[in-house]
């Protein structure tokens, strides 16, 4: 018992307890997403309506891939999240873009908006 208590104290001191406990929003969220270009000829923004989407949250974080890059989204204690991330589209000579992501999780319902001046999208997901 003393060893277990000492381990918890050491992990707390090291800042590792959240990974042991998990996050209150952890889980797999599934539903649909829509995407629409905001002007003609936008590269990397194919129109989509009702496309299946899945997002996994672990320790109140989700890692998502956009273009050639991955980025993390951190969920706040009230279920909100906001992220502005730079990404690359294409192979050699890739172009850079910025995407803004925001949303909220309430009672297992995740609503997320993402976009920039070229493309807009919305995801409506429910915790499985």
What does this structure look like?
With 128 residues, the protein is mainly beta. It has a single domain, classed as Lipocalin, CATH 2.40.128. The protein is 13% helix and 55% strand. The strands form two sheets. Strands 2-1-8-7-6-5 form a six-stranded antiparallel β-sheet, with no helix packed on it. A two-stranded antiparallel ribbon has the order 3-4. The radius of gyration is 18 Å and the shape is globular.
Number of helices: 2
Radius of gyration (Å): 18 Å
User: Sheet with the most strands?
Assistant: 6 strands, antiparallel
Oligomer: single chain
CATH class: Mainly Beta
Observed structural traits:
disordered N terminus, 2 helices, 6-stranded antiparallel beta sheet, two-stranded antiparallel ribbon, Lipocalin, 8 strands, mainly beta, 128 residues, single chain
């Amino acid at each position: 018992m003393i060893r277990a208590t000492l381990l918890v104290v050491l992990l707390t001191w090291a800042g590792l307890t959240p990974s042991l406990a998990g996050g209150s929003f952890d889980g797999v969220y599934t539903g649909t997403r829509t995407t629409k270009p905001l002007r003609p000829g936008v590269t990397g923004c194919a129109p989509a309506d009702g496309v299946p989407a899945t997002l996994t949250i672990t320790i109140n974080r989700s890692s998502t891939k956009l273009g050639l890059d991955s980025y993390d989204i951190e969920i706040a204690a009230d279920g909100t999240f906001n992220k502005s991330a730079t990404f690359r589209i294409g192979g050699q000579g890739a172009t850079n873009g910025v995407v803004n992501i925001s949303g909220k999780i309430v009672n297992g319902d995740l609503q997320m908006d993402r976009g920039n001046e070229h493309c807009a999208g919305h995801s409506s997901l429910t915790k499985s």
